[in-house]
Structure formats: structure tokens, C-alpha cells
Specification:
Order of helices and strands: EHHEHEEEHEHEEH
Helix content: 25-40%
Number of helices: 6
CATH architecture: 3-Layer(aba) Sandwich
Number of strands: 8
Distance between the termini: 36 Å
Shape: globular
CATH class: Alpha Beta
Number of domains: 1
Largest sheet: 6 strands, parallel
């Protein structure tokens, strides 16, 4: 039995695998939330190691000061956190005001695409194969290059709705929604205990 509490049917990786994961955290987070679930980050890190021999998992996140405790938690779960400075994009004057008459909140933007590509190439000599976690077509060039060099192990997309630019890599694509049972976060505070028989 493995650390997720499942029995291993087949071993997908050799014991000596040294694969790196490069994770677009926003794409992954929003992608699973859109289909109604929340990722358990601890389980996901274990799953990456057990299923694909991931020894280093780089998590690319837009930095917000109020999320410091989240970054620490992710680090404790075994991710290598790469923080990207964010900036606020204010609504233009011609943009419509919010429905309740309040001023619209600025949009916080922290584009991590360039950083993910940079790290994948900086670390290129250090890993056997790469696992790219995103459904964003902006990574087409990186995915194409890794595949051409036989360095792409998997392209993990959050759900079935990923960029059409990535369709040609179907043999490498695996959607994480099919692993929801193993990877979903469950808040045990709200799990009802069975009532004793009277």
C-alpha cells in the first residue's frame, strides 16, 4: 500500500527515476475548481513522486503578501516554490462599475509563464524527463521542444478543457480530473460520523 492509501497494481516508474515537475499553480488551481473540486496539495506531491518519479516539483505562484502561510505550507509539502511579483491592473474609467455601485477592485496579475519555461531550461541537464502541469497553450513551444528531445514525460492538464494548441501532444496528455478521487481535498471537520444504533 502506498502513502495515499492505495494498493499499487503496476509500477509505472523505475526506482531510479529523476523527473522534475513544473507546475503552473494558477492554471491548475482554477482548472480543478471550475469542475467543482479542490486539490489536496500534499496528496498531489506524493502522487507525482509515486506515479512519475518526480524528485523536484517546482511550483510557480504569483506572490501576494497575505498568502505567506500558504507558501510555507506548500514548501512543507515538498514543493520548490518560485514566487513571481504581482501587479495590480486597475479598471479603466470606461469600464462599467460593479453592479452594486461600488468601485471595482483591481485585478491582481502575476504571469509565471516565462519563469516556468526559464526553469525548465535552466534545470534541463539535471532531470531525466519533465512533467509539465498546465493546460495553457502558452507552453506550446516548451512542450514541443521537450517532446522533440524525448525529455517530456507527461503533460498534466487540470481537466478536459485545455488549449487546442496542445492537442498534438495527446499521447503525453493526462487529465487530472480522472484522479479526483485520489487527489481531492476533503475537509474532515465536516465529515459526519455515523450515529450509533439506538
Amino acid at each position: 500500500m502506498n502513502r495515499l492509501g492505495r494498493t499499487n497494481r503496476t509500477t509505472k516508474k523505475p526506482k531510479t527515476a529523476n523527473n522534475y515537475a513544473f507546475i503552473d499553480s494558477q492554471n491548475l488551481n482554477l482548472g480543478v475548481q471550475k469542475i467543482g473540486w479542490k486539490m489536496d496539495w500534499r496528496k498531489f506531491r506524493i502522487w507525482l513522486e509515486e506515479e512519475y518519479g518526480v524528485t523536484h516539483a517546482f511550483m510557480f505562484i504569483g506572490y501576494m503578501a497575505e498568502n505567506e502561510s500558504l507558501y510555507e505550507l506548500m514548501h512543507d509539502h515538498g514543493y520548490l516554490i518560485v514566487l513571481k511579483p504581482t501587479m495590480e491592473i486597475k479598471a479603466k474609467p470606461e469600464d462599467e462599475p460593479a453592479a452594486n455601485g461600488e468601485e471595482q477592485k483591481p485585478i491582481v496579475k502575476g504571469n509565471i509563464d516565462a519563469d516556468l519555461v526559464l526553469y525548465a531550461m535552466k534545470e534541463y541537464q539535471n532531470y531525466d524527463k519533465a512533467v509539465i502541469v498546465s493546460g495553457d497553450g502558452d507552453f506550446f513551444g516548451l512542450v514541443e521542444y521537450l517532446a522533440s528531445q524525448d525529455k517530456l514525460l507527461k503533460l498534466l492538464t487540470p481537466n478536459q478543457r485545455y488549449s487546442t494548441l496542445l492537442k498534438e501532444f495527446d499521447t503525453h496528455i493526462e487529465t487530472l480530473d480522472q484522479h479526483r478521487k485520489d487527489l481531492a481535498y476533503r475537509d474532515r471537520r465536516f465529515v459526519r460520523k455515523p450515529q450509533p444504533a439506538k
